[in-house]
């Protein structure tokens, strides 16, 4: 569902509830949030009118209609989750628009981790009052699992370039990171199987590290703001000894490490991919600011960096639409001069945000109807 739809539907429902109690709104516990921001002086709990709260708005009905229309005509009524499945694949099996998954996934909050789906789970597609619902076949009793690993939202192997390639880090993050002092064997260059002394390793719980080297700055193409610093991937290491300096064993390298190179934890781990596809809660309009390997034509399952992040309301699991930016052409037919004409943006695919930072985020191209490039537009689906 789009941000505008959610916001309008919620506003209308809260407005109706507020009128029913004389201009104030309940916070769900029976207390009121007064317009001034202060609590009701009497602190007397009251209930929102059940009639007002249950009246469906025209907007909510429109959203419900879109959700129902998104169910595929060939969607199964019963599906057994298998090893190798991803939540994206399952969402696409039931829905044409996977960002509607939260609208139809019916969870039982009495069971542990109800949002997680495991191999062996049986999903049932049902219709309740004309609305689609997907639930577990046995959502009341204990779940019988053939695996203890919940299915991820995407295949982790698709993110291999992200785990072993250049990455953006927050401004100031490298300056505060542990850094390579020298090799234990006093070599000038560090490579795989070398132990290295590292400053700032006292009392860290992190065992696995990446060795990185500062490269160039990335600026917001719209505002010129510093978004992040690109760090070049050097290799990986395993903590051997805490301290300042401590010791890390370099387990693999793609180039030699130098004194002053930085150590940071890996940017993502398997639990980070236990997400549900969803539409952003806020209005998002941004750009692709880089593509892995610097390619000009970005296609399906390739990784891009966006100039929007947590401060704009993006979270991992959000789905964004991607538009090919309209070009500028000369109208040679116009008289007396040839004006420059800006062509409209053209819908080109879908992106799945899988890692967010304060100022930027990473996304995987899940659908590409035409090649994308740096500078193309991302927005709410």
Rg, rounded, reads 26 Å
Structural class: alpha+beta
Q: What is the general shape?
A: flat
Assign a percent range to the helix content: 10-25%
Tell me the span between the first and last alpha carbons: 8 Å
Count the helices. How many?
Answer: 6
Main beta sheet strand tally, sense and closure: 7 strands, antiparallel
- Unreliable spans: 1-55
Q: Count of DSSP E strands? A: 20
In short:
The protein contains six helices and 20 strands. It has helices at residues 3-20, 50-54, 58-70, 87-94, 101-104, 160-163, and strands at residues 25-26, 32-33, 78-80, 122-128, 131-136, 167-169, 179-183, 195-199, 208-219, 226-241, 246-253, 262-264, 285-291, 303-306, 319-324, 328-330, 340-342, 346-356, 361-368, 377-379. It is flat, with a radius of gyration of 26 Å.
């Amino acid at each position: 569902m789009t941000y505008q739809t959610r916001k309008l539907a919620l506003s209308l429902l809260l407005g109706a509830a507020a009128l029913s109690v004389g201009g104030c709104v309940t916070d769900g516990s029976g207390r009121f949030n007064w317009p001034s921001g202060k609590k009701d002086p009497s602190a007397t709990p009251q209930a929102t009118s059940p009639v007002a709260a249950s009246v469906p708005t025209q907007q909510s009905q429109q959203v419900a209609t879109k959700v129902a229309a998104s169910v595929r005509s060939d969607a199964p009524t019963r599906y057994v989750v298998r090893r190798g499945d991803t939540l994206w694949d399952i969402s696409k099996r039931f829905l044409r628009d996977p960002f509607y998954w939260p609208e139809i996934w019916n969870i039982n909050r009495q069971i542990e981790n109800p949002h997680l789906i495991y191999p062996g789970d049986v999903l049932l597609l049902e219709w309740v009052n004309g609305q689609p619902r997907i639930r577990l076949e046995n959502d009341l009793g204990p779940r019988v699992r053939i695996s203890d690993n919940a299915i991820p939202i995407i295949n982790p192997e698709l993110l291999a370039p992200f785990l072993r390639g250049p990455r953006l880090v927050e401004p100031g993050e490298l300056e505060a990171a542990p850094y390579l002092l020298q090799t234990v064997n006093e070599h000038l260059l560090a490579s795989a199987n070398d132990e290295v002394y590292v400053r700032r390793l006292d009392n860290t719980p992190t065992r696995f590290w990446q060795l990185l080297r500062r490269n160039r700055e990335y600026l917001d193409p719209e505002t010129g703001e510093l978004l992040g610093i690109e760090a070049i991937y050097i290799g990986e290491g395993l903590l051997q000894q805490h301290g300042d300096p401590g010791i890390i064993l370099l387990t693999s390298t793609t180039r030699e490490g130098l004194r002053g190179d930085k150590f940071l934890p890996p940017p993502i781990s398997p639990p980070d991919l236990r997400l549900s596809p969803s539409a952003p809660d806020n209005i998002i309009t941004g750009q692709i600011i880089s593509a892995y390997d610097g390619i000009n034509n970005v296609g399906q399952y390739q990784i891009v960096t966006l100039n929007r992040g947590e401060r704009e309301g993006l979270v991992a699991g959000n789905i964004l639409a991607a538009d090919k930016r309209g070009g500028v052409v000369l109208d040679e037919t116009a008289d007396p001069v040839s004006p420059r004409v800006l062509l409209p943006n053209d819908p080109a695919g879908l992106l799945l945000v899988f890692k967010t930072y304060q100022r930027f985020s990473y996304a995987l191209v899940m659908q590409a109807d035409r090649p994308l490039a740096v500078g193309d537009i991302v927005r709410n689906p």
